[in-house]
Amino acid sequence: xxxxxxxxxxxxVALAAVATTLISGAGAASAATAGATLYDKTxxxxxxxxxxxxxxxxxxxxxxxxxxxxxxTSSQESICFYLDANFSGAHFSGTADAGSTLMIPVLRLVxxxxxxxxxxxxxxxxxxxx
Length: 130
Ligand SMILES: [Ca+2]
What we know:
Elements: E1 4-9, E2 14-18, E3 20-21, E4 35-39, E5 48-52, E6 67-72, E7 77-84, E8 88-96, E9 100-104, H1 107-110, E10 120-123
Antiparallel strand pairs: 1-2, 1-8, 3-9, 4-5, 4-6, 6-9, 7-8, 7-10
The structure holds calcium ion.
């Protein structure tokens, strides 16, 4: 089963990404944490942090994310990513439908300003990230 995940930018541009299907069942539970996981390097390499859906600051992971996954487990997950702490500054959002994963392997290709710049995340409110 494949579903489409969406990445919405503050500019209103929407990108589509082919979502991977999560493996469910015994032995795979640890692979499916709902919400966002941020990785220091591109293609999900090196250190990572999994704040899930809410973090007013990312602590030692501030300004480090270079690739991202957003996982929708039992329900759709739509996450806002902010370039400043406490949900402020420039932002964009990523959405994964239930049972799918939004993959952003090279964040700088979405927007060079986003690379090594994410400082907080929270669930997308109805309508917007503002
Ligand atoms: Ca980085």
